[in-house]
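Section 5.1 Outputs to date
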Amino acid sequence: MMQAVRGVCTQPPPEQRDIPVLTLKAEQIAGLLEQLKTFWRRFSNLFQRREQREWGLKYLQGRLMDGEKHFTKPMAQRMGIKNPRCLQNFVGKSSWDDEPILSEYQQTVQEYLGEDEGLVLMDGSGMPHDGSESVGVTRQYCNETGKVDNCQVAIFLAYASAKGYTFLDRRLYLPEIWFSQDYAQRRRKCGIPPETRYQTHQELAWQMLCGVLDRRVVTFRWVLGDEEFGRDTQLQDRIAGANRYYFFEVPANTAVWLDRPPTAMLIWSGRGARPFREHLTSGRAAAQTVAQVSANLPAYRWHRYTLHEGSKGPLVADIARLRVVNVREGLPGAWVWLVIRRNVLTGELKYFLTNAPAETTESKLAWLSAARWPVEQCTEDGKTELKMNQYAMRRWIGWYHHMTLIMLAHLFLVSLQLNLREDAPALTVSQARMLLQVVLPKPVFDEAAALRVLKETQCANYAAYLSHRRRLLRRLGVT
């Protein structure tokens, strides 16, 4: 018998909606370049030098343009920039401080998307990278290739509300090996600040969240993350201590109690150290894994929901929830919700823990179990539309400058979605970037200009060949 589906999605299914009507006019598209310049002026005032303000706008334009490769030199050539090194130096070496820009950026995110029930989303993203000289590169798990690979790993915060979604902050993960003595020279070459210490993915995410909390600009209630962040109980407790609600996926072997087990302080014998923490009393019920809890749930605890209406159709899942006690250092902690989601088609189970209030509705918890997709879409937009994984910045400062400007470019596309929503209600980030191609300035090549570009490219290729050859000969011990 088909189980009844309980509604969660705020949007009705496509067959019950009117087909989106596009009423954009040509003059609206013609004004997009001026909108980009107006958007950039909000941030350009934070640069000390006129040249930096100009190069920043050019870098945004280059990232928004079409093109197979978005490394700085070919990007500069497409824009008609005669000296690409100026653009490279602006991003990779120039000493402009991106912290004031980040603060202004988060203020802008709040103005565009901010809601009291906003979501902050945590995610990590690997970016394959050739060579070993770039900052943070080593063999580590890369989710882009699905295996251990030579890559850099970025940790992102994103923000989502009913209005839309975009990036919120970014950190480069430095693997522990990068803090060994063998990497000391490489750290100096990459310009890693001497005070930098090793931090896990979870610590980097918390550091960014602390920045958001300290600025008191972005309004949000929920913090969501996948299993990588959910397995860190300290991160859960920190978020709860900041008066926010976490909703994390957790591993199947996460232990919980269905009832709070009794504890007691041991009686001090008068010798040795006085007991300072309680212990579980004898005859206690053993903690169970969330997988064991799920296996023993009766059928009536499960309810079917449509969680999300995506581009490939609805996400339908069976949801069960129950109050449990979490485990902290072998002792009972706080009462939390255990939410279990079962894929209707495959039977795959996912487990979530949240410190949401006891009165939180099941439909709300069901919706939250599928509300993490915007951060994955942000990284997908960044890679496919803005080519954020195509760069040749070896230094620490270059990586952060590049990612800061990528976030600005993405937020501008989101601003176009919002500004044009009345006339283009179904406009996506990708489509917004497509509209920009009409108005972004492009060089007009004549025969002489084409020959000049060809000559510059061949000279650069030969210089790169000589550099690689010298490096190889040094490694071989040939002088």
